[in-house]
Write a structure and sequence with these properties.
159 residues; mainly beta
């Protein structure tokens, strides 16, 4: 179940009903450094109606390190980046996870993993998560040769 909280500071109108995207992600993980797990990835959100990497693609990237701090606690550091369509942001990734017991774990890694996980069995779990969503789209307005942008930013809660 997804619950979404938002406010609309500025309302604009457009008549485009559908935006078609191809989502592509590449990533890698290593555990070669002692007590560290390092992973990174690149994501592309490509508009399939106007296939152009320079004008109609939104890029994201992450570099994340998880350090085995002590028995039940891991520390997390890194960066998360977004760029494309007249937008560039670099956000710090920082936080920790703590395992209370075999059944209960807290992930407090801003902004990528803020959740409380309860394990019912080895294969089933319940979780409550707070998540940040960000998407940018360039609208199709060929008759006016206009390349307007729409941004969707929101916080949500999942169970």
């Amino acid at each position: 179940t997804m619950f979404s909280f938002s406010h609309h500071p500025k309302h604009t109108s457009f008549d485009q009903k559908h935006i078609n995207n191809l989502l592509v992600q590449f990533g890698a993980t290593t555990k070669e450094a002692e007590r560290w797990k390092i992973d990174g990835g690149i994501g592309l959100q490509i508009n399939t109606d106007n296939f152009s990497l320079s004008r109609y693609t939104f890029f994201s990237g992450i570099l994340h390190g998880k350090y085995d701090f002590k028995e039940r606690t891991n520390l997390h550091v890194g960066i998360e980046c977004f760029t494309g369509m007249r937008f560039t942001r670099v956000l710090p990734l920082i936080g920790f996870d703590y395992t209370f017991s075999d059944k209960l774990k807290l992930n407090a890694v801003f902004p990528v993993d803020m959740s409380l996980v309860y394990s019912l069995t080895n294969k089933w779990s319940l979780d409550a998560t707070i998540r940040y969503m960000l998407s940018r789209q360039r609208l199709n307005d060929h008759k006016n040769n206009n390349r307007r942008l729409v941004a969707y930013r929101n916080w949500g809660a999942e169970a």
